[in-house]
């Protein structure tokens, strides 16, 4: 068991996916996509859901066939769940991402899990204050630390407000890519698992803060695996630890990202987790990878069976589709 690694997730399968023009200005990871990308992205997200379910992760799969929200495949940016029955809903930087917030997802979680409180920060959008969930923050659930790289999508005021409400201590720092631009989301340069942390230390501008972050992670008992900026470009930091049906935890990561890891890095990871790699190249054109696609559920399930028409299935052959 690990408080860091959830065993249930929410995914959103896009029917009309394309990279979001409203996020291209500060997301240096985005690329131009071919006209066929929507079909390929649908297939890639389906494959991720299938592979996770096959490994024993409980998958709640929601559909988005509207076409109005290009980044809906990345639900971890607009909500997060927390031990003790709490959900946070977040303010989004791009106007066309705000419609990704879905009442049916929250209602489903309330119906299937023990939810005591929903804390909604979306009202800060008119003030141009944003905090894009577990994209903007990488949360150490065991040590209660929220790591955040400063950007347009991670406002320091909201970070402190979140930490006060949810019981985390903030670690805010500046992180730049190879061209000197702020890294738009912390979760592309940092992944915290139970026994190790993947982090691009060279992107952290201030050497004192770099040393602080390293010490903080090591003090939590983790092995720090430094990533290069080149590996970050391959989405090596955009991974998430999960629990399936087996005795060992899983590290869900894209095939592209896994291929960029060194043998020594893989040895440390595989001493703690089994790698679960999926080719999601079409979705990575939008500037996010596997971690961005997965909203982990850190809530207790209801002990009494519910009558919800779409309970998640934990089988190798099927993934429950939650009707919208």
Plain-language structure description:
With 324 residues, the protein is an alpha/beta fold. It has helices spanning 37-54, 103-112, 133-136, 156-166, 207-219, 229-233, 255-260, 263-270, 281-284, 290-293, and strands at 8-14, 58-64, 79-82, 86-89, 117-120, 137-140, 145-149, 169-173, 190-192, 196-199, 223-226, 240-243, 249-254, 273-278, 295-296, 320-322. The chain has a single domain (8-302), classed as L-arginine/glycine Amidinotransferase, Chain A. It has 10 helices and 16 strands. The protein is globular and about 45 Å long. The two termini are 32 Å apart. InterPro entries: Amdntrnsf_FN0238. One of its GO terms (molecular function) is transferase activity.
Keyword list:
10 helices, 26% helix, single chain, 22% strand, L-arginine/glycine Amidinotransferase, Chain A, alpha/beta, four-stranded mixed sheet, 324 residues
Total of helices? 10
Task: Briefly note the CATH topology name.
Answer: L-arginine/glycine Amidinotransferase, Chain A
Q: Give the topology string: H per helix, E per strand.
A: EHEEEHEHEEHEEEHEHEEHHEHHEE
Total domain units? 1
Structural class: alpha/beta
Q: Please give the share of residues in helix.
A: 25-40%
Side by side, the strands of the main sheet go: 15-1-2-16
For the record, the CATH architecture stands as 5-stranded Propeller
- Record field, number of beta strands: 16
Radius of gyration (CA) equals 18 Å
Q: What about the largest sheet?
A: 4 strands, mixed
Q: Low-confidence runs (pLDDT<50, min 5 residues)?
A: 305-318
Pfam families: DDAH_eukar
Protein name: Amidinotransferase
Keywords: Transferase
InterPro entries: Amdntrnsf_FN0238
């Amino acid at each position: 068991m690990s408080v860091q690694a959830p065993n249930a997730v929410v995914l959103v399968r896009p029917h009309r996916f394309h990279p979001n023009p409203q996020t291209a200005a500060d997301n240096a990871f985005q690329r131009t996509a071919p006209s066929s990308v929507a079909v390929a992205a649908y297939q890639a997200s389906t494959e991720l859901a299938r592979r996770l379910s096959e490994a024993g992760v409980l998958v709640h799969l929601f559909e988005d066939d509207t076409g109005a929200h290009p980044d809906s495949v990345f639900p971890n940016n607009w909500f997060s769940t927390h031990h003790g029955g709490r959900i946070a809903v977040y303010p989004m930087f791009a106007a066309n991402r705000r419609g990704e917030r879905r009442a049916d997802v929250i209602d489903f979680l309330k119906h299937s899990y023990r939810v005591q409180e929903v804390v909604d920060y979306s009202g800060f959008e008119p003030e141009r204050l944003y905090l894009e969930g577990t994209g903007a923050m990488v949360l150490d659930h065991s040590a209660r630390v929220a790591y955040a790289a400063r950007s347009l999508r991670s406002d320091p005021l909201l970070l402190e407000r979140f930490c006060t409400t949810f019981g985390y201590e903030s670690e805010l720092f500046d992180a730049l890519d190879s061209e000197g631009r702020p890294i738009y989301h912390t979760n592309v340069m940092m992944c915290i698992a139970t026994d190790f942390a993947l982090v691009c230390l060279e992107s952290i501008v201030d050497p004192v803060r770099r040393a602080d972050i390293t010490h903080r992670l090591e003090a939590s008992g983790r092995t720090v695996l430094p990533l290069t900026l080149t590996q970050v470009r391959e989405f090596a930091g955009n991974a998430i630890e999960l629990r399936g049906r087996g005795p060992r935890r899983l590290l869900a990561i894209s095939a592209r990202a896994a291929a960029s890891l060194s043998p020594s890095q893989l040895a440390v990871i595989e001493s703690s987790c089994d790698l679960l790699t999926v080719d999601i190249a079409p979705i990575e054109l939008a500037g996010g990878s596997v971690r961005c696609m997965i909203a982990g559920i850190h809530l207790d399930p209801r002990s009494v069976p519910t009558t919800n028409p779409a309970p998640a299935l934990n089988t190798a052959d099927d993934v429950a589709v939650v009707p919208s």
